[in-house]
Design brief:
The complex is a heterodimer of chains A (about 325) and B (about 425). Chain A is mainly α. In chain A, about 75% of the residues lie in helices and about 0% in strands. Chain B is an alpha/beta fold. In chain B, the strands form three sheets. A five-stranded mixed sheet of chain B has the order 2-1-3-11-6. In chain B, strands 8-9-7-10 form a four-stranded mixed sheet. The longest helix of chain B has 28 residues, at about 1-30. The chains are: A mainly alpha (about 325), B alpha/beta (about 425). The interface between A and B is large, with 57 and 63 residues. Chain B: Keywords: Signal.
Chain lengths: ~325, ~425
């Protein structure tokens, strides 16, 4: 149901806004006959490179993805260019697939838990680093390391550390008398393991954004509060959190969009396995298209489109939020 | 106020403009895939292969160039990794810019042949009668042959001789599953690790499982047969008994080899391509055939590349392409390829005999290749990749304990049926 309502809502929004938006550029209705003035042509000319760029690199790939998902692109049809139009069959197959509920739950878990921890830890670190102390700059830089490492390096390292038999994590746990945990190879823990790695990867992003948000909170407010006898926890709850709310909202939304589309970390660590235990929508789509001996572009594109729609909803939320923030 | 108003308007204009132009773009794209442009000019022939490890200064490159020189042309060689090569080949066929020659991983041949982008060896007037039928099978679709294997590799069981000696296990005693399991019990009892293999959730996982699957007498058209369940129970039993590490579930073949090289493991299931590395190991190694359930050699899946010739719009190019293909597929050519790579077994009897005359130590491997079986054979063709995906998923589910072998394989059979119907 949500599937059918979302695109229409998005579509009408574009249409309604588009009519209003085009008014200044090209007068509507009968007046259009007279043709645009020289300055309007110039405006179009200046906008053209951007438009061409947008079409080539954004609109066409998007369109191609929709096209792939509405046809039955077998390998043969892909080469011959004569795919059968199947309407929403690919989407129906995706929804009916036994992978769907698993992928839905995994995506929700992976995204929500990742964001919750990334944000909380990021915020705690940002508050911690707000009070400058010796080496605070250096320590803050250290926390950016996950961001600087190529994903293939950090994911492989996590996979090694979490290895069932030879991983350092298990060897530490065993020295405390906790038995071997099959982090990446047990269906109960694989998703948790990739989520932990992803949390680690996402902390720097949250730290940086929230830290810069904190710089905008005037120090006098804290001074006044402490004169009034507010302790650290009180200051945090009554000053930091409310004043940081706009930045927090955007951090979380951006994080959501980033996390939804994560493929590399999961693929490198578990390839979505064992079985489907850590398969999210993004991983599922990648596996259909590139993970097997036979590329299955149509279902892959269908899953990809669902993901794009979900991300789009959050994207519009983001825009809405930004607009409200600028208004205030 | 002014400020806030303006922003969404610009954004929306951009979105609308993009949407309109997207439609234009879509219409023009419809006309694209039509014409076939040839891969190069008449003296340059294009060649793709899956060996990025051999760069422009390698022996392999020299060998390829030599075939070009003999045909009086220059060969422009491009290397991709195996999966990327299939995708690139499909894209180029769609664009009409296929290369003249591709060396293609054997299970991909039937997939590409099915698209109509490959020429048959008959059209080229090339005789494939000398090639071992079990190896050629992967290139045969509906009675037509779409390529010639340039060499073959397969799996066998490497062992660490020091561990086996210490545990008092004679490698020659390993002739069936029971004796192998007994050997594993003996070496783990002596404080060593037993066996490692690759159960990763990709094609490699199926590749490694197939010798046991086929060795039990199971068939890829019936994934949930009692024989198939027995094979999976064998693996699962090894994990449960601690003969194999739990990490096999995520191991690739390279990882298992690294594990074996540490000297901790008594056995590893691995391929011909590790022969040189095994010789350089810090301990003495040996190779035995993978045993079938009730004795004898289990059919291992064949690995290795086929040389194929994609369809070109300019048929005048075929004559030179034929000469290049011939250069790679004479008995001498096979042996030269085998020597260049050090692990490629020639696919013809004549070639194999020549190779054995030069390197008698490869006998186990030649024998393994002779009893090997193509993954896409039994006329599975393009159904194989789908069946394989169901199979490796079942292996993952059973080994990780999320399903019993029986449940996992029943689900796999249902998935495979749904995917191939």
């Amino acid at each position: 149901m949500t599937m059918t309502t979302l695109p229409t809502a998005v579509g009408t929004r574009e249409d309604a806004g588009g009519a209003a938006g085009s008014t200044p550029a090209a007068p509507s209705g009968p007046r259009r006959r007279r043709g645009p003035s020289a300055s309007q042509w110039a405006a179009v000319g200046f906008a053209a490179p951007l438009l061409v760029y947008l079409v080539l690199f954004y609109a066409y790939p998007l369109w191609r993805n929709v096209d792939l998902s509405l046809h039955d692109y077998t390998i043969r049809a892909f080469v011959q260019g004569d795919p059968e139009f199947v309407g929403l069959d690919n989407f129906a197959a995706v929804f009916a697939s036994s992978t769907f509920p698993a992928a839905l739950w995994n995506t929700a878990f992976f995204t929500v838990v990742s964001i919750a921890f990334q944000f909380t830890i990021g915020l705690a670190l940002a508050v911690f680093f707000r009070s400058s102390f010796r080496l605070s700059g250096f320590l803050r830089a250290l926390f950016l390391v996950p961001w600087l490492l190529p994903l293939i390096v950090s994911s492989s390292t996590w996979a090694w550390m979490l290895n069932s038999d030879n991983g350092i994590v298990n060897s530490v746990l065993e020295s405390f008398g906790i038995g071997q945990i099959n982090w990446l190879t047990s269906p109960d823990t694989a998703l948790i393991a990739v989520t932990i790695a992803n949390i680690w990867l996402g902390i720097p992003f949250n730290l940086v954004i929230l830290y810069s948000g904190l710089q905008n909170v005037p120090g006098e407010v804290y001074e006044a509060a402490s004169l009034d006898g507010a302790g650290a926890w009180r200051q945090f709850r009554s000053i930091t959190l409310p004043l940081l709310r706009p930045v927090s909202a955007i951090t979380i939304l951006l994080g959501l969009i980033y996390t939804l589309k994560v493929v590399d970390v999961i693929w490198i660590m578990t390839t979505g396995g064992p079985g489907n235990a850590s398969t999210t929508f993004a991983v599922w789509s990648y596996r259909e298209a590139f993970g097997t001996g036979q590329p299955d572009f149509s279902p892959a594109a269908a899953v990809g489109n669902i993901l794009i729609l979900v991300a789009l909803v959050f994207g519009f939320l983001h825009l809405q939020l930004q607009r409200r923030q600028e208004a205030s | 106020m002014h400020h806030t108003r303006r922003k969404p308007v610009t954004l929306v204009t951009a979105v609308l403009g993009t949407a309109t132009l997207a439609l234009v773009g879509a219409c023009s794209s419809g006309g694209a895939g039509g014409g076939q442009a040839s891969g190069g000019d008449s003296t340059t022939y294009t060649w793709w292969d899956p060996y990025p490890q051999h760069d422009a200064s390698s022996d392999w490159e020299a060998r390829v160039q030599q075939c070009g020189e003999e045909a009086g042309v220059t060969i422009q060689r491009t290397a991709y990794d195996t999966t990327a090569l299939t995708n690139q080949a499909l894209l180029s066929a769609q664009e009409g810019t296929s290369p003249d020659v591709i060396l293609l991983d054997n299970p991909a041949v039937s997939t590409l042949a099915d698209t109509g982008m490959l020429t048959t060896m008959d059209e080229f007037g090339l005789d494939t009668a000398d090639v071992d039928a079990n190896l050629l099978d992967a290139g045969v679709v509906d009675g037509e042959t779409y390529g010639i294997p340039i060499g073959a590799n397969t799996l066998a069981l490497y062992y660490n001789k020091e561990i086996l000696d210490a545990a008092g296990v004679d490698p020659a005693s390993i002739t069936d599953w029971a004796s192998l399991t007994a050997a594993l019990e003996a070496v783990t009892g002596a404080g060593h690790k037993g066996i490692t293999f690759a159960g990763i959730g990709t094609e490699e996982g199926s590749f490694q499982f197939l010798p046991w699957f086929w060795g039990a007498g199971a068939d890829l058209t019936q994934l949930d047969s009692p024989e198939a369940v027995e094979a999976l129970e064998l693996w699962k039993g090894w994990l449960d008994a601690g003969y194999a590490p739990n990490s096999v579930i995520q191991n690739s073949q390279n990882t298992t080899w690294e594990e074996f090289l540490t000297g901790d493991f008594a056995f590893v299931e691995n391929g011909t391509w590790q022969v040189n590395s095994a010789a350089e190991a810090d301990f003495e190694t040996g190779v035995v055939q993978l045993p079938a359930k009730d004795g004898g050699v289990a059919p291992a899946p064949t690995g290795g590349e086929f040389i194929v010739a994609p369809v070109q719009s300019d048929e005048g190019r075929y004559e030179v392409t034929r000469q290049i293909v011939e250069c790679m597929t004479t008995p001498e050519g096979f042996v030269e390829t085998a020597n260049t790579f050090a692990y490629y077994v020639p696919p013809t009897e004549e070639g194999q005999e020549q190779l054995l005359a030069e390197s008698p130590e490869l006998e186990t491997w030649v024998e393994a290749v002779r009893s090997a079986k193509g993954r896409t054979s039994d006329n599975l063709g393009t159904d194989y990749p789908k069946i394989s995906e169901a199979l490796w998923t079942a292996v993952q589910n059973a080994l990780s304990g999320s399903a019993t072998p029986q449940e996992a394989l029943s689900a796999a059979q249902a998935d495979a049926e749904a995917a191939t119907s």
